[in-house]
Amino acid sequence: MMKRVFWIVLDGLGVGETPDAADFGDQGANTLSNLASAVAESRGAPLHIPNLLRLGAHRITRIEGAAIPSGVIGAFGKAREQSRGKDTTSGHWEMAGLPVASAFPVYEQGFPAELVEEWVRENGLPGVLGNCAASGTEILERLGREHMQTGKPILYTSADSVWQVAAHEETFGLERLYSICKSARKLVDRINLGRVIARPFIGNPDQGAPFKRTYHRKDYAQLPFGPTILDELCSRDIPVLGVGKISNIFAGRGVPENIDTAGNTDGLRVTLECLENRQTGLVYVNLIDFDMLYGHRRDVKGFAAALEEFDVVLGRLIAGCAPDDLILLTADHGNDPTFRGTDHTREHVPVLAYTPRGKKGVDLGTRDSFADMGATVFHALTGSPSASGKSFLHELA
């Protein structure tokens, strides 16, 4: 048994297409490998991630120019998703032992007019702008000024099952935005939509300040349709702390305590503080910037810088681990910044694990489900097997 588990989700860091990637139009996607190749080509030097390499990242997928370490100190593998999707909700739910058998519906042609009209009436809105699939930055450029002039929120979606509402923090109001998103969450339960996302922004291009999304984003997911390992841990009085958007993804269930963060740097700061201050339980971290700021925007340079920043902190986490700590690194889907389009990519996710008293250089292979990670976390903190997924704790210890 372990006293603490640090389960860190590098949001969007896939490691290669899954066998069913063609069903999603994602053949050739490989977030980590393609990123490394693009970096090596553009700056003439490889991606600098020595600590991820120490855990065996190069044994999962090709990393061009990587300085291969003399030995691997952790366990390495990858996992394929059983859920029929490539989104945040299904990825995290499956990790926690709750695969999603049917994909959440998507509305790339816009949401049903009668549902939107009911939402408008219920909240006394003057109307909406958009109601289409769009990039979050592009739609602000296109409709941001009109939104500020009319007070109509911007409604848009993507290839994911999301009802996204963008509104100006100052002219529309942050609390008002949260309120209308909570209202939308109740309405879209009828169509089984995955998430409602409040997307606040600031700025005024007419005054020389470009529109910019803020970290006051909030996700409103539907309630998980069954118990997760987070619920099981709570039932045994084992502390569960979410860092970042974890609580939002599970609609608060199984996550009694959560620390909201302003991106990766803040999330890493909180994680290091937990390493110093928390004595027991699970610290479940989502690092959103890989996905939100760099993957969707196809920003290779930004993605690389964020990954190198993470690698530095990973070195501190490894050095600060107690003998009965477990670090588990993964992702919830891919988001290849070199790929066409702006959406997630259907990929395997990395499974990298380290505990000071564990075996070195353990090949975990390709796991059949993300749920194997949740089963391992549960096993590590309780000493008991989980009903969902196959624990690989015995392979580490």
Tell me what you see in this structure.
The chain is an alpha/beta fold and 397 residues long. A hairpin with a 4-residue loop joins strand 6 (195-204) and strand 7 (209-213). The strands form 2 sheets. Strands 10-9-11-1-12-13-2-14 form an 8-stranded mixed β-sheet, sandwiched between helices. Strands 3, 4, 5, 6, 7 and 8 form a 6-stranded mixed β-sheet that branches. It is globular. The chain has helices at 31-43, 50-54, 88-95, 113-123, 136-150, 169-188, 229-235, 246-249, 264-277, 289-295, 300-320, 371-382, 393-396; strands spanning 4-10, 75-79, 129-133, 154-157, 162-168, 195-204, 209-213, 218-221, 240-243, 257-259, 281-287, 325-330, 349-354, 362-367.
Strand content: 15-25%
Could you give the order of strands across the largest sheet? 10-9-11-1-12-13-2-14
> Using only CA atoms, what is the Rg?
21 Å
Quaternary status of these chains?
single chain
Residue-averaged pLDDT, rounded? 96
Sum up the overall morphology in one term: globular
How would a crystallographer describe the biggest sheet?
8 strands, mixed
**Helical fraction:** 25-40%
Q: Enumerate the spans where pLDDT stays under 50 for 5 or more consecutive residues.
A: none
| Number of separate helices | 13
Q: What class, by secondary structure content?
A: alpha/beta
Query: How many β-strand stretches?
Result: 14
The end-to-end distance, rounded to whole angstroms, is: 9 Å
Output the helix-strand order. EHHEHHEHEEHEEEHEHEHEHHEEEHH
Brief description of this entry?
This protein is of the alpha/beta class. It contains 13 helices and 14 strands.
